[in-house]
Design brief:
This is Phorbol-ester/DAG-type domain-containing protein. It comes from Brassica campestris. This protein is mainly β and about 650 residues long. It contains ten helices and 52 strands. The chain is about 10% helix and about 30% strand. The model has no long low-confidence stretch (mean pLDDT about 85).
Length: about 650
């Protein structure tokens, strides 16, 4: 069995060799074998919790059967009638009586008082309706549903911690007993738990003879001594509770303690790599990738981090593209993998083409079903008002399709955009959506747009950003730039720091995605000639923007070589250049009606909010019941509407 879909959880669940903490019952009652995990939420379930019955009869409420529920069905918080704890993930309820009880209490309700706890000399009282507390034994929050308190010492204990003695015999260190100590009482080896490698807290278990230390979590929930799990290895593997330097055969990365090993095969694996998925899709490659125990001998480069992949260790590779591979840890990153394991799932059907060919120059495109589109391949020069419906860029000298009956136009390249694609900007597949009257903000460049978009729920990227790949060549730099997520590097083009950049690690050169898609040449009515983007390579002297008359600093700008003048990129393009001029759009701001209007020397309206007459190429005309006003930017649009919606 590769995955299951259960009514207890909305995402697929996958078998895992053990469960330490269950998100169904929120109990840490020892490590349980053969559970399930959800890759999407990074949570685990006991097998019994994941397979809980949808309806049960229980003595706590004998009048009616109880139904299994999940929090999405309730907007208000619920408290268990037996233990008083706040219900978090799943619980049983009676729709007639509003009786609710959590799954832990269904199986084993907690006692009100623990008279003789092993971890403390006094009795402990259950704190009902008190979930937000810290256990004084393990010093952790939220790792148990039940919290008990000693009112003599004012100490609190998780239910599981209260039953832990101060001296234990530990299965992974049977030679000597382990004593419960604090950091002040004993000097230990390297400050990390021998089993999991996490930093030890102030309290832990220790053998002073062997310098063996283990945290409370691994005492409460130790991993199994042996595992037989085919996804990890063909043979049974055993935990080796030692400080030992090794390379994981699944991911190729080094480890320093407690691997699982197979002596028969000289095989070692990190605990975290045991249930790596076998067949996956990543947003850096168009085909499925399969996990390999080792690659064929040769020189391999990771398709994500572009560093060397050691062929003798495990990695993911493509059966269609013989030279493509990716490190195991790179492949399962949150921003790369879509969290689905595909073993046993058939490939998707053949991709749907964006248009049907009518004849050699005529097509029927899905975005314009009412009419046919005709191909124009001659070097036809169009004015800046004639724009592509998909990318909202001017139709200049490129080949384009035009409607035989109306003014609908598409660049030839935009007409061939795939209906679905995977993209580095999102971990899930994206679908091509046709531009309509609703505007959207591109999740990559933050530009407001009304053209075509690739979409997945609330995520949108415009057509221009969708054409970027994870490695690009840009005229401003001689090396390949790689897309890196989460590096917070400074953009060389604007000086801003961005969470995502196209970056050259050797030269420390980075570009914000918004600057990568800046047009190399453009037009503005303020100057009669084409304007070219200047990267300040071999430029000397100080420049002043001819539009706003302010200094052009050390960053990128547009210039006219014929007139020897410079312009800020924001003055030339504004932030409305991805909206179709002359169209009316409806925004998400209370269905506000807006018209996109092109400026000119004779039409330069005053912005309602900032009161300026900016020479940006486009402004927005806002229609209210008793007045129409203008906004020169998306920010001014937002503030203008906040004021005007109360006035009109």
């Amino acid at each position: 069995m590769n995955r299951i879909k259960l009514p207890t959880h909305k995402h697929p669940l996958y078998p895992t060799p053990w469960v330490r903490s269950c998100n169904g019952c929120y109990r840490e009652n020892g490590c349980t074998k053969d559970g399930y995990r959800c890759y999407e939420y990074k949570i685990f379930f006991h097998k019994k919790c994941a397979e809980s019955s949808l309806e049960i009869n229980h003595p706590s409420h004998s009048e009616h059967p109880l139904h299994l529920s999940i929090p999405e069905k309730f907007s208000e918080s619920k408290n268990c009638k037996l233990c008083g704890e706040t219900l978090i993930y799943m619980f049983y309820h009676c729709p007639l009586c509003k009786f609710v009880v959590d799954t832990s209490c269904i199986k084993n309700p907690p006692p009100d008082v623990i008279d003789h706890p092993k971890a403390h000399e006094h009795s402990l009282v259950h704190l009902k309706h008190y979930y937000h507390g810290t256990c004084d034994f393990c010093e952790k929050k939220y790792c148990s549903r039940y919290l008990y308190k000693c009112f003599q010492c004012q100490l609190k204990f998780h239910f599981e911690c209260s039953n832990l003695p101060l001296e234990i015999t530990y299965p992974f260190h049977p030679k000597h007993p382990l004593k419960f100590l604090t950091r002040e009482e004993h000097h230990f080896s390297d400050g990390k738990c021998r089993i999991c490698g996490n930093e030890l807290g102030r309290r832990f278990y220790n053998c002073s003879i062997c310098k063996f230390s283990v945290d409370v979590a691994c005492v409460k929930n130790p991993p199994p001594l042996t595992i037989l799990f085919s996804k990890a290895h063909d043979h049974q593997i055993s935990l080796m509770p030692r400080i030992i330097s090794f390379n994981c055969d699944a991911c190729g990365l080094s480890g320093d303690r407690s691997p699982y090993s197979c002596q028969q095969c000289d095989f070692m694996i990190h605990q975290s790599c045991i249930d790596l998925p076998e067949i996956i899709n990543v947003n850096r490659h168009e085909h499925r990738l399969s996990r390999r125990l080792q690659l064929s001998p040769g020189s391999w480069i990771c398709g994500f981090c572009h560093k060397k992949v050691d062929w003798s260790y495990g990695a993911y590779s493509c059966s269609i593209c013989p030279n493509y591979a990716i490190h195991s840890n790179c492949a399962i990153r949150d921003d790369v993998w879509d969290k689905l394991e595909l073993k046993g799932i058939s490939e998707e059907l053949q991709e749907i083409k964006p248009f049907k060919v009518i004849d050699e120059n005529l097509i029927h495109h899905f975005s314009h079903e009412e009419h046919y589109l005709q191909l124009n391949e001659e070097n036809i020069t169009c004015s800046g008002n004639i724009r592509c419906e998909a990318c909202v860029s001017p139709i200049n000298y490129q080949a384009f399709y035009s409607c035989v009956q109306c003014d609908f136009l598409l660049h030839e390249t935009c007409a061939n955009l795939p209906r679905k694609k995977r993209h580095m900007y999102h971990d899930k597949p994206l679908a091509l959506m046709v531009g309509d009257m609703m505007e959207f903000d591109c999740s990559a460049c933050s530009q407001c747009s009304s053209g075509f978009r690739y979409n997945n729920k609330s995520f949108n990227i415009d057509v221009k950003c969708s054409t970027l790949s994870e490695s690009i060549f840009h005229e401003s730099h001689g090396c390949t730039l790689y897309y890196i997520y989460g590096n917070n590097k400074e953009c060389i083009a604007c000086g801003n720091r961005s969470y995502c950049t196209f970056y050259c690690d050797d030269c420390k050169f980075g570009l914000d995605p918004k600057r990568v898609v800046l047009p190399k040449t453009t037009k503005h009515w303020y100057d009669d000639h084409p304007l070219s983007l200047c990267y300040r390579v071999n430029t000397k002297g100080e420049y002043w923007c001819d539009i706003c008359e302010e200094s052009v600093e050390k960053y990128w700008f547009y210039k006219c070589d014929d007139c020897c003048v410079a312009f800020h990129t924001k003055c030339v393009l504004g932030d409305l250049s991805h909206l179709m001029p002359g169209r009316r759009i409806i925004t998400y701001h209370d269905e506000l009606r807006i018209e996109v209007m092109q400026t000119s020397p004779r039409f330069l309206p005053r912005c309602y909010y900032c009161r300026s007459r900016r020479a940006v190429p486009f402004v927005l005309k806002l229609f209210y019941p008793n007045q129409t006003v203008f906004a020169c930017s998306s920010d001014c649009l937002l503030f203008t509407h906040q004021v005007c919606k109360f006035l009109y």
